[in-house]
Amino acid sequence: MNVCITNPNSAGSISGVESINYHLELTPAQLKITHTALRSLLDDFGHDEREIHILINEVLAKLPDEHAIRAIQLDVELAPAEPDRDPDPGSSPGAAA
Q1: Cα(32)–Cα(41) distance, rounded to whole angstroms?
Q2: pTM for this one?
């Protein structure tokens, strides 16, 4: 899964600094962790920090919707891959007939 996070207004500036666009390629597990961290960060900031809330919500809006994030199962995504198994172990070149 590729998630591209870019700023459509690349000519704009933030606090006098030229804006920079970033392209991130995240695995589904990384995407879920990023979304969860941003939601947690949003909950941690007080109501008097409106600019931070706006910024976090702008980033969250660029990510897939809540249903897509919930569908990502970390236990499945993080499970080790099963090794390839030979369907017929007796067919190996060194096996006795």
Answers
A1: 14
A2: 0.61
What is the 3-class SS of 16-83, one letter each residue? CEECCCCCECCCHHHHHHHHHHHHHHHHHCCCCCHHHHHHHHHHHHHCCCHHHHHHCCHHHHCCCCCC
Cα–Cα distance for residue pair 11/96, rounded to 1 Å: 71
Q: Which amino acid is at 72?
A: I
Decide if 50 contacts 87 (C-beta within 8 A). Answer: no
More confident residue, 3 or 19: 19
Non-local (6+) Cβ contacts of 1 within 8 A are 26, 27, 28, 31
- Please give the helix or strand (H or E) that residue 47 lies within, else none: none
Half-sphere exposure of 92 (CA within 13 A, CB side): 7
pLDDT digits (tens, 9 = 90+) for 22-44: 888 999 999 999 999 999 999 88
If one counts every other C-beta atom within 10 angstroms of the C-beta of residue 13, the result is: 9
